[in-house]
Amino acid sequence: MKKISLAIMVLAVMLFSTNGFSQGAPKPIFGAKGGFNFANIGGDTDNKLKTAIHLGVYSEVFFDYFLMLQAELLLSQQGHAADLSNSLSLWYFDLPIMARYNLGYNFNVQAGFQIGVLLSAKSKSTDSFSGQEITIDVKDQFKGTDFGLPIGVGYEFWDRKLNATLRYIIPLTNISTFTGVGEKRTNSVLQASVGIMLFRINE
Fold first, then answer.
1. Cβ distance 121 to 139 under 8 Å?
2. What tens digit of pLDDT does each residue of 145-188 get?
3. How far is it, in rounded angstroms, from Cα 11 to Cα 142?
4. pLDDT tens digits along 14-46
């Protein structure tokens, strides 16, 4: 809970401490976003791609008309799809802090840093005799935080009222609590998102 509270605090600072960043530039905005995760678990493992979801809120703060800072707070499902044995579902609170550079009026490129706080981890398998689905809590097998480097591209429509983003999060850390040969696990996530502006600050 302390890590989640810290993430919310950082986002709040981004949202409301904006006057120094945006003098003479477009006004900061607050919005909601959601989309799909195309996730897998990399490292010393071979699994199937999982199609999952993410949703949350974001803020955009301009330094000038080209360079800006974007903060998000996302509820994100990751893991991998069912292979020969089981599927894995990991739920995170993710806090990406992105630097964004606008190439023209609508198109932009972005890169940043992301911290994820693990909320739950469930493994699902099918009993070979009864055919029943078995769900096991495996949270103790994964670290409580995950770190990554998000990079991506985006496009804005209708004066920033709507945006689309394609982003890949480069994994930085081993999320497995186990050590030894063959025990490394990393989150591999490609995100496709759509965001909608809710309001402009100081409008």
1. yes
2. 999 999 999 999 988 899 999 999 999 999 999 987 678 999 99
3. 25
4. 444 444 444 556 788 999 999 999 999 987 777
**AA letter at 191:** Q
Q: How many CB atoms lie within 10 A of CB 140?
A: 7
| Torsion angle (degrees, nearest 10) of CA 51, 54, 59, 62 | -10
Higher pLDDT pick, 129 / 81: 81
163 φ, ψ to 5°? -145, 155
Mean pLDDT is highest, among 28-32, 60-64, 84-88, for: 28-32
Q: CA–CA separation, 203 vs 197, rounded Å?
A: 13
Cβ neighbours, 10 Å, residue 97: 16
- Alpha-carbon 107 to chain mean position: 21
Q: Where are the domains of the chain?
A: 31-200
Residue of 70, 76, 75 whose CA lies nearest to 31: 70
Taking 60 as the threshold, does the pLDDT of residue 5 lie above it?
Answer: no
CA distance 17 to 61: 9
What's the fold here for domain 31-200? Porin (2.40.160)
Beta strand ranges found along 5-128 (DSSP E): 29-43, 50-62, 67-80, 86-103, 107-126
